[in-house]
Write a structure and sequence with these properties.
- With 561 residues, the protein is of the alpha+beta class.
- It has a domain of 272 residues: FAD/NAD(P)-binding domain, CATH 3.50.50.60.
- It has 14 helices and 25 strands.
- The protein has a five-stranded parallel beta sheet. The protein has a three-stranded antiparallel beta sheet with strand order 4-5-6, with no helix packed on it. The protein has a three-stranded antiparallel beta sheet with strand order 13-17-14, with no helix packed on it.
- Helix 3 packs across helix 5 and helix 9 packs across helix 10.
- The longest helix has 24 residues.
- The protein is globular, with a radius of gyration of 23 Å.
- The two termini are 40 Å apart.
């Protein structure tokens, strides 16, 4: 399969080489799920498009390990996004794509997160998602460019409030009528000079209750729904934070601070990142966990102490879970997983990503590699360290990274889970009030439906002298809610031909609900639709008549209410 995917990638590069002298109507920077959807929609509406991906792999998290689709409500997903999940179903209807187990062994509904007879499938291997995206794009007139990064110092030229040209580090330039920033980082948006923010707002800024520092165990949302903010994914009681137990003078263990800050106060910290590992327990396809270069046991002392502080059997060490391992192994086809963070010390590298959004490319690469080595060390510790209980080691040792998914020989992906980075600040900011249905915009371009969700942001010493995590919020959303078109376009005086479907204008806690891959595809399609309408009418993207935009979105299968 890898050879086939590389060949398809080669074809796309050839396509670019033959067409690079042409000026496209729309330039999409970032081949994430949103970028792919935007490029497909542009082509289907008869406009020319260049999709620029800074790495060698399209699809972002959807092809980078996040196969356990976070939906919220399936009926909120329409258009190209829903079409993608329909193609995933067709992919797995082909017996040739079941190599390590049969379709019946995987199951017909529960594991797929689909009902019997449903035309879509919501769980998949990274390679399946990549294959589907490439098949969908191959039918369109899309110029796909790999391994080109925006020059973040001088890479955007603007005239009369419009971007005219963007320049890559290589010196290549791309001009267009409308530009779409589909990156997780918002790099094009930032270089274009539009307003944006990083971190958590205070609750006071937008009158929210779930933003800012959230150290309390319980909180109440605006609609009276209780949120267990610091309860989940935390340490068992009594885990000592000091290098020498009980001795504050010995210093704190790595990545712990003394105090979390005032409740509800804002800061520039962001929720933790991790790799969504694709693991397998099939020996023929498994790469055992290896100790990374530079491994230091002190970085995992809290993990070990968390086991040592347990009361009773390991399977009962957490009041809200029954698991030997501090991770969620969601079953994907072919005996693979989408493995995510769980419990107090897990795959989330808490506190080590604050610099990432504004960091240089070189510094980002160091941060990504630091995350990878941390997670490699975590897996090796769970599988091998003598202070880890034997039954935990035995279970962890059954698993390893996969040989047949990613380009790296060690089975690790390149794509880090950038849960949150920069966020646009436009004339409309999506907030907790939108997620809870109190504010309803009149220019819907898609629906959010997932709960307001933030992973932990910092690790601190509590009033009892023990370690705790802070920042986790899990608050249910009662029903799908509309996302405003104005939240994906900058203020008109800042830029008239830029649309930002990923790093959209939303508060930290509202972004935590919106930031799901199916929704990013929805917003990518809507962004492209608006871009085409702006080009046809020769107007700013902010001036696109909503009635016209709504009409096309509904015709193309988007769900707006």
């Amino acid at each position: 399969m890898k050879n086939t995917l590389y060949f398809l990638s080669f074809l796309f590069i050839v396509h670019f080489t033959n067409a690079q002298s042409e000026t496209p109507d729309i330039v999409v920077y970032g081949g994430t799920s949103a970028g792919v959807a935007a490029a497909i929609q542009t082509s289907r509406m008869g406009k020319s498009v260049v999709l620029i991906e800074p790495t060698q792999r399209i699809g972002g998290l959807t092809t980078g390990g996040l196969g356990q689709t976070d939906i919220g409500n399936k009926q909120a997903i329409g258009g190209i996004s829903r079409e993608f999940y329909g193609h995933i179903k067709k992919y797995y209807d082909n017996p040739k794509n079941w190599k390590w187990e049969t379709e019946s062994e995987y199951g017909t509904n529960g594991q797929r997160r689909s009902e019997v007879g449903e035309a879509t499938m919501w769980t998949f291997e990274p390679s399946a998602a990549l294959s589907v995206y490439q098949e969908m794009m191959a039918k369109e007139n899309i110029v796909l460019v790999y391994n080109e990064r925006l020059d973040r110092k001088k890479g955007v030229k603007k005239t009369n409030g419009k971007i005219t040209v963007i320049e890559m580090e290589s010196g290549k330039v791309f001009s267009g009528a409308v530009f779409i920033d589909a990156t997780y980082e918002g790099d094009l948006m930032a270089v274009a000079g539009v307003s944006y923010t990083v971190g958590r707002e205070s609750n006071d800024q937008y009158g929210e209750t779930l933003n800012g520092v959230q150290a309390n165990i319980l909180n109440t949302s605006l609609t009276g729904i209780v949120s267990r903010n610091a309860y989940n994914h935390n340490f068992v009681p009594g885990v000592d934070p000091y290098i020498k137990k009980g001795n504050p003078k010995s210093g704190l263990l790595p990545n712990i601070i003394e105090k979390p800050g005032l409740e509800g106060a804002g800061d520039q910290k962001i929720q933790a990142y991790c790799f969504r590992m694709c693991l397998t327990d099939i020996p023929e396809n498994r790469i055992p966990f290896k100790k990374p270069e530079g491994y230091d046991e002190i970085n995992y002392e809290l993990l070990i102490r968390n086991y040592e502080a347990r009361k009773g059997p390991i399977r009962e060490m957490y009041s809200y879970g029954n698991s030997l391992l501090p991770w969620i192994n969601s079953a994907m086809p072919n005996h693979k997983t989408d493995t995510n963070n769980k419990f107090g010390f897990s795959t989330d590298y808490i506190g080590k990503n604050y610099a990432y959004p504004e960091a240089s490319y070189a510094e980002r690469e160091r941060i990504v590699e630091d995350h990878r080595k941390y997670q490699m060390g975590l897996m090796w510790t769970l599988a091998n360290h003598p202070r880890i209980p034997k039954e935990v080691r035995d279970e962890a040792s059954r698993w390893g990274t996969t040989k047949d998914e990613f380009e790296r020989a060690d089975g690790w992906q390149q794509q880090l889970y950038i849960r949150e980075a920069r966020r646009l600040v436009s004339d409309y900011v999506m907030t907790q009030y939108n997620c809870e249905g109190i504010y309803v915009p009149d220019d819907a371009i898609g629906l959010g439906a997932y709960g307001m969700d933030s992973h932990h942001i910092q690790r601190y010493v509590d009033a009892n002298g023990f370690v705790q995590n802070e920042g986790n919020v899990e608050c249910h959303v009662e029903s799908p809610y509309p996302i405003s078109y104005k939240s994906i376009v900058p203020k008109k005086e800042e830029c008239e031909n830029l649309i930002v479907p990923v790093c959209l204008s939303a508060s930290h806690i509202a972004f935590g609900s919106i930031r799901m891959e199916p929704v990013f595809m929805v917003l990518g399609q809507s962004a492209a639709t608006a871009a085409v309408l702006a080009i046809d009418a020769d107007i700013a993207v902010q001036d696109v008549p909503y009635r016209n935009l709504r009409s096309v979105l509904l015709k193309d299968g988007q769900r707006l209410k």
